[in-house]
Amino acid sequence: MRLNRTELPKDYADMMKTEDHHQHEIIRDKHGTIRWKEDSFIRRLTDNCSLNNICAGFHANGGDKNTESYRELYRKMGYSLSGYWEIFYWDMNNDIADEYKQPEKEGVLRNIDKQDAMELATSFYVWWHNQPGTNTEQGFSEWWELQR
User: Fold this and answer.
1) Is the separation of the CB atoms in 64 and 95 below 8 Å?
2) 86 and 50: one domain?
3) Looking at the structure, do residues 93 and 120 belong to the same domain, yes or no?
4) Can you give the pTM of this predicted structure?
5) Can you give the pLDDT of all 148 residues of the chain as single tens digits?
6) How far apart are CA 35 and CA 82, in angstroms?
7) Are residues 9 and 67 in the same domain?
8) Which residues contact 139 (CB under 8 A, 6 or more apart)?
9) Residues 37, 27: contact at Cβ < 8 Å?
10) 61 vs 77: CA distance, rounded Å
């Protein structure tokens, strides 16, 4: 069952503040465990090889537990949120956990608030709807330049 991040237990609030740059889905599995939704290919890959070797590869190539691709691997494996916290946020397992800096948020509208997005969308729709070639991508570049 898919969970909205606002539905998570308060124990995860601090962790979620630094996990808001991606939209990786969170689920509650059939056993009631809250976890990242697994990517079936990544799960099969990691089930058929040594995770220790994969982690050693990250370290050998300059990665550490604060490297985003390292964390992404665990999310895509479908790791439980509690296990993810232990690996990446607990200083007993990650002595540089407090140095983690999240990358920029995903998505093209990451720096636009809802009101600005609505005004942009409405402005484009009205302009586009009254132009020749509606129902196509034609005209977007022209409108975009007029907005700048």
Assistant:
1) no
2) yes
3) no
4) 0.68
5) 999 888 999 999 989 988 888 889 999 999 999 999 999 999 888 888 888 888 898 889 999 999 999 999 999 999 999 999 999 999 999 999 999 988 876 555 556 667 777 777 777 677 666 766 655 566 666 666 666 5
6) 8
7) yes
8) 127, 128, 131, 133
9) yes
10) 21
Show the tokens assigned to 12.
């995860």
Neighbours of 67 (CB within 10 A): 15
Residue 118: count of CB within 10 angstroms of its CB: 11
Q: Is 32 left (phi over 0), alpha (psi -120 to 50) or beta?
A: left
Same domain, 126 and 59: no
Which residue do the tokens 């407090």 mark? 98
Cβ-in-10-Å burial (0-12, 13-18, 19+) of 28 comes to middle
- Beta pairing partners, 20: none
CB 109 within 8 A of CB 86: no
H or E, element range at 47: helix 40-47
Counting every residue, how long is the chain?
148
* 104 and 21 Cβ atoms separated by less than 8 Å: yes
